[in-house]
User: Fold Ferritin from Rhinopithecus bieti.
Amino acid sequence: FTASSDSPNQDSEGAINRQINLELYASYVYLSISYYFDRGDVFLHQSHEEREHDEKLMKLQNQRGGRIFLRDIKKPDYDGLNGMERSLLELHKLATDKNEPHLCHPFTHYLNEQVKAVKELGDHVTNLRKMGAPESGLAEYLFEKHTLGDSDNES
Assistant:
C-alpha cells in the first residue's frame, strides 16, 4: 500500500501480476517436460510447486486489495525460466524501492527456489547436449535411465 491511501501501489500490482503469469508459465513448461520425458516423478512435482507459488501470489494480491490479471499462457520457449528469474529480481527491487518490505520476503524465497531449479535444468540440458541430443534418441534414453534414474513414474 502507498503511504497516502488504502489502495495498492500500481507498480507493485503490475509486477505481482507479471510474476503470477510467469509462475503459471513455468508450471506449464514443467508440465510439458514431464510428459515429454514421461517423468511425472521429477518434473510434474516442479509443475505443482510453481502452481503453488502463483496461488500464494494471487492470495497476496487479493490481501493487498489489488486486482489479478491473467494472460494467455504461451507455448514454452527455452528462455522462460530465465525470464522468471529476472522478473523476481525486478519485483524484489520494486518492493524495496516502493518501501513495501512485506513483499520482499516471499520473493527472496521464490528467487532462491528459482535459482536451484534453473541450475538443475541447466545441468540436465548440458548433459543432454554432451550426449548428442536432440539428434540422438539414444541420448534421451541414456539421460532418462542414468540422470533421472529408475524411480517409478506417477503417470
Observations:
- Residues 101-130 form the longest helix (30 residues).
